TrEMBL record:
It comes from the Bacteria. Residues 174-239 form the HTH luxR-type domain. Pfam families: Autoind_bind, GerE. PROSITE patterns: HTH_LUXR_1 (PS00622), HTH_LUXR_2 (PS50043). This is Quorum-sensing transcriptional activator YpeR. The gene is ypeR.
Length: 245
């Protein structure tokens, strides 16, 4: 029976991976090891994805180090779908838009056929749960077909846990960072975030342009970023710019 699971706590990735694996094995009960990859990628930010996976370690490291997600045809298809779908290397050979040599590399790890559940959430993330097995792919596909609805609910529950943990971490960091920032620094960054120049900010705030630069410089240090653009992004992510004009 499917059961709702509690929010992630701050634990080692290995423990999270082991728990997801156990949940899948319990849900599917097919008597053979299941390989999975739970993948989260924000579509509006140029950042590396987050992956919890029991795929071969060397493959995951290569996938991330060489940024293979930028050419992964499974990811491309998932970005355009809301329904789950099977995949295999021969399918992508026939589709020029998804043509990639990634399966030549993944074949070395017996990753040639699997099934993916895509999810597009309210934070503009693309999340995927991909499954494959090295033992009997046909049995896995039949089991997925028999349990597809429950597997999708399990995927939703796993993703809700990820979002809950992320929100908790963001709130803690927000509180910690906010204590270090002054109201004038936040105000200066707010105006910068909506496109005002330093000169315009100085006029709005009734201060000199050099003082505006001083505030922004302090923010860059306190937020541990490299420039004003990154300061705006980090402050936005931490919900620090909810400023009333």
């Amino acid at each position: 029976m499917f059961s709702i699971i509690k929010p992630f706590t701050s634990r080692e990735n290995g423990l999270i991976i082991a728990e997801i694996h156990d949940l899948l094995q319990h849900e599917m009960n097919i008597g053979q090891p299941i390989r999975f990859a739970y993948f989260i990628f924000n579509k509006s930010q140029d950042e590396k994805p987050v992956i919890y996976s029991n795929y071969p370690k060397d493959w995951v490291e290569k996938y991330m180090k060489n940024e293979l997600y930028k050419q992964d045809p499974v990811l491309l298809v998932a970005s355009q779908k809301i329904m789950s779908f099977p995949w295999h290397k021969n399918y992508f050979k026939k589709n020029k838009r998804q043509k990639s040599n990634i399966f030549i590399q993944s074949s070395e790890y017996n990753i040639t056929r699997g099934y993916t559940f895509p999810l597009h959430d309210y934070e503009n993330n693309l999340a995927m749960l991909s499954l494959y097995t090295e033992s009997d792919p046909d049995l896995l596909m039949k089991c997925i077909s028999d349990h597809e609805d429950r597997l999708y609910l399990l995927f939703l529950s796993i993703h809700n846990r990820f979002l809950a943990e992320k929100a908790q971490q963001t709130n803690k960091l927000h509180a910690k960072v906010e204590k270090r920032l002054t109201s004038r620094e936040i105000e200066a960054l707010h105006w910068a975030s909506i496109g005002k120049t330093y000169r315009e900010i100085a006029i709005i705030m009734g201060i000199t342009e050099s003082t505006v630069k001083f505030h922004i410089g302090n923010l860059i240090v306190k937020l541990d970023v490299i420039n004003a653009k990154h300061a705006i992004k980090k402050a936005t992510d931490l919900h620090l710019l909810n400023f009333n004009e």
